[in-house]
Amino acid sequence: MDKEDPKEEIYKDAKNKHAFLDKRLQMLLKKPYLTEEEEMEIKILKKKKLFYKDIMERAKEEIERGEES
Question: pTM for this one?
């Protein structure tokens, strides 16, 4: 089996994006003072992280059920 399951690819891609967003979020949260733009970015990052977490959960459930793409 050379090719990875599309659901596993989706999961890994979402996981990587989630981790990237989390690193940026953690960096911002360490700052003692945030600009208005940074506060807005934090809100956006949190929403995007939830979006990718939902994708990861859906893909994981489908992988566990053995569903095809």
Answer: 0.82
Domain borders along the chain are 6-63
Residue by residue, what is the 3-state secondary structure of the chain? Answer: CCCCCHHHHHHHHHHHHHHHHHHHHHHHHCCCCCCHHHHHHHHHHHHHHHHHHHHHHHHHHHHHHCCCC
Q: Contact, 51 vs 15, CB < 8 A?
A: no
pLDDT above 70 as % of the chain: 90
